[in-house]
Design a protein that fits this description.
Elements (H helix, E strand, L loop, with lengths): L15 H7 L5 H14 L4 E5 L2 E5 L3 E7 L3 E6 L2 H6 L1 H5 L2 E3 L2 E5 L6 H20 L1
Antiparallel strand pairs: 1-2, 2-3, 3-4, 4-6, 5-6
Length: 129
Protein backbone atom coordinates (compact mmCIF):
# COMPACT_ATOMS: atom_id res chain seq x y z
CA UNK A 1 0.00 0.00 0.00
CA UNK A 2 1.23 3.50 -0.74
CA UNK A 3 2.14 5.16 2.53
CA UNK A 4 1.12 8.76 1.84
CA UNK A 5 -1.99 10.41 0.49
CA UNK A 6 -5.14 8.87 -0.86
CA UNK A 7 -3.54 6.65 -3.44
CA UNK A 8 -5.84 4.93 -5.87
CA UNK A 9 -3.72 1.77 -6.05
CA UNK A 10 -4.14 0.16 -2.66
CA UNK A 11 -2.13 -3.08 -2.81
CA UNK A 12 1.51 -3.97 -3.20
CA UNK A 13 2.40 -4.73 -6.80
CA UNK A 14 5.56 -6.12 -8.34
CA UNK A 15 5.50 -4.66 -11.84
CA UNK A 16 4.46 -1.45 -13.54
CA UNK A 17 1.95 -3.41 -15.62
CA UNK A 18 0.39 -4.71 -12.38
CA UNK A 19 0.31 -1.19 -10.95
CA UNK A 20 -1.52 0.13 -14.00
CA UNK A 21 -3.94 -2.82 -14.04
CA UNK A 22 -4.76 -2.21 -10.36
CA UNK A 23 -5.45 1.51 -10.88
CA UNK A 24 -8.97 2.89 -11.33
CA UNK A 25 -10.33 2.71 -14.87
CA UNK A 26 -10.15 6.50 -15.37
CA UNK A 27 -6.43 6.54 -14.45
CA UNK A 28 -5.23 3.63 -16.59
CA UNK A 29 -5.01 5.55 -19.89
CA UNK A 30 -3.11 8.36 -18.14
CA UNK A 31 -0.68 5.90 -16.53
CA UNK A 32 -0.18 4.03 -19.82
CA UNK A 33 0.61 7.33 -21.56
CA UNK A 34 3.07 8.34 -18.82
CA UNK A 35 4.78 4.96 -19.17
CA UNK A 36 4.91 5.26 -22.96
CA UNK A 37 6.40 8.75 -22.87
CA UNK A 38 9.01 7.88 -20.26
CA UNK A 39 10.07 4.77 -22.19
CA UNK A 40 10.26 6.79 -25.41
CA UNK A 41 12.39 9.48 -23.78
CA UNK A 42 14.61 6.99 -21.95
CA UNK A 43 14.51 3.64 -23.78
CA UNK A 44 17.49 2.29 -21.80
CA UNK A 45 15.99 3.16 -18.41
CA UNK A 46 15.17 0.40 -15.98
CA UNK A 47 11.56 0.13 -14.88
CA UNK A 48 10.59 -1.05 -11.40
CA UNK A 49 8.39 -0.35 -8.41
CA UNK A 50 9.85 1.90 -5.71
CA UNK A 51 7.93 3.46 -2.83
CA UNK A 52 4.96 1.48 -4.20
CA UNK A 53 5.01 3.48 -7.45
CA UNK A 54 6.37 2.96 -10.96
CA UNK A 55 9.99 4.14 -10.99
CA UNK A 56 12.50 4.71 -13.79
CA UNK A 57 16.24 5.00 -13.47
CA UNK A 58 19.22 5.39 -15.78
CA UNK A 59 22.50 6.35 -14.13
CA UNK A 60 20.31 7.57 -11.28
CA UNK A 61 16.71 8.58 -10.73
CA UNK A 62 14.61 9.70 -13.67
CA UNK A 63 10.95 9.70 -12.69
CA UNK A 64 8.06 8.17 -10.79
CA UNK A 65 4.33 8.27 -11.43
CA UNK A 66 1.26 7.36 -9.42
CA UNK A 67 -2.52 7.39 -9.41
CA UNK A 68 -4.43 9.11 -6.63
CA UNK A 69 -8.13 9.56 -5.98
CA UNK A 70 -8.63 12.64 -8.18
CA UNK A 71 -5.39 12.96 -10.12
CA UNK A 72 -2.30 11.21 -11.40
CA UNK A 73 1.12 12.55 -10.53
CA UNK A 74 4.37 12.59 -12.47
CA UNK A 75 7.33 13.05 -10.17
CA UNK A 76 10.68 14.15 -11.52
CA UNK A 77 13.79 14.94 -9.57
CA UNK A 78 15.50 18.32 -9.59
CA UNK A 79 14.93 22.00 -8.98
CA UNK A 80 16.90 22.79 -12.16
CA UNK A 81 14.06 21.42 -14.26
CA UNK A 82 11.61 23.88 -12.75
CA UNK A 83 13.80 26.72 -13.95
CA UNK A 84 14.66 25.22 -17.33
CA UNK A 85 11.06 24.48 -18.23
CA UNK A 86 9.34 27.31 -16.33
CA UNK A 87 7.33 28.49 -19.35
CA UNK A 88 5.93 25.04 -20.14
CA UNK A 89 5.30 24.25 -16.48
CA UNK A 90 3.44 27.53 -15.89
CA UNK A 91 0.34 26.18 -17.62
CA UNK A 92 0.39 22.96 -15.58
CA UNK A 93 -0.66 22.07 -12.06
CA UNK A 94 2.75 21.76 -10.35
CA UNK A 95 3.46 21.26 -6.66
CA UNK A 96 7.20 21.21 -5.90
CA UNK A 97 8.67 18.77 -8.39
CA UNK A 98 5.34 17.03 -9.00
CA UNK A 99 3.17 17.58 -12.04
CA UNK A 100 -0.45 16.70 -11.33
CA UNK A 101 -2.78 15.54 -14.06
CA UNK A 102 -6.35 15.99 -12.83
CA UNK A 103 -8.98 13.33 -13.40
CA UNK A 104 -10.19 13.91 -16.97
CA UNK A 105 -7.08 15.95 -17.87
CA UNK A 106 -4.64 15.35 -20.68
CA UNK A 107 -1.07 14.17 -20.23
CA UNK A 108 1.37 16.90 -21.34
CA UNK A 109 3.39 14.28 -23.23
CA UNK A 110 5.82 16.62 -24.99
CA UNK A 111 6.69 18.35 -21.72
CA UNK A 112 7.18 15.09 -19.84
CA UNK A 113 9.38 13.79 -22.63
CA UNK A 114 11.54 16.93 -22.34
CA UNK A 115 11.77 16.56 -18.56
CA UNK A 116 12.82 12.92 -18.79
CA UNK A 117 15.35 13.54 -21.58
CA UNK A 118 16.79 16.41 -19.54
CA UNK A 119 17.09 14.17 -16.50
CA UNK A 120 18.87 11.51 -18.62
CA UNK A 121 21.38 14.16 -19.76
CA UNK A 122 21.91 15.40 -16.19
CA UNK A 123 22.47 11.85 -14.91
CA UNK A 124 24.94 11.08 -17.70
CA UNK A 125 26.81 14.30 -16.96
CA UNK A 126 27.07 13.40 -13.24
CA UNK A 127 28.27 9.90 -14.13
CA UNK A 128 31.08 11.27 -16.31
CA UNK A 129 32.20 13.77 -13.66
Amino acid sequence: MIARGAAATQKDVETVADYIADAPAWARPVLRELRRVIRKAAPRASESISYHMPYYSQNGRLAYFAAFTNHCSFFWIGAEDGKSYAKELASQMVVGSTLRIPKGGNVPSALIEKLVRGRVRQNEKKKRA
